[in-house]
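Readers outside the structure-tokenisation community will struggle with the description of the input data as it stands. For illustration, here is how one protein appears when written out as sequence plus structure tokens:
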Amino acid sequence: MKRTSDEEPLRRDAGARALAFRLGLSAETRAAALLMLKGFRIAARRWRSPVGEIDLVARRRRLLVFVEVKARDKFDDAAEAVTERQRRRIAAAAEAWLASHADDLQCDIRFDAVLVAPWRMPRHIKAAFDVTPP
């Protein structure tokens, strides 16, 4: 069966999405390893709610951290990739997490980022953003 020219862009898009997915998983694995080295326990990876996704949820004693992982060629590009819209979705997802994990309401809560770049140690940014209303 001969392929039509319309099928080729779809295959390329699917390949690009699959590569991005694998790179994202790799970045999250590296970020989780860094946090574990810092004494955190990973409570969840790619936790999904109807309002958004949290890449990593980590705990250390009474601290609960919602972590956004960004992988880019350069750390500066990764930092800039955490948009205001994403921050709002992460905050909404964190509220959903807390609604379904009542024990965590007693924890101190923080929103961190882990930036990942090729051939570099991931960079952990504590309190990378604040989600309190203006």
User: Anything to note?
Assistant: Residues 7-125 form a domain with the Trna Endonuclease; Chain: A, domain 1 fold (CATH 3.40.1350.10). The chain has three helices and five strands.
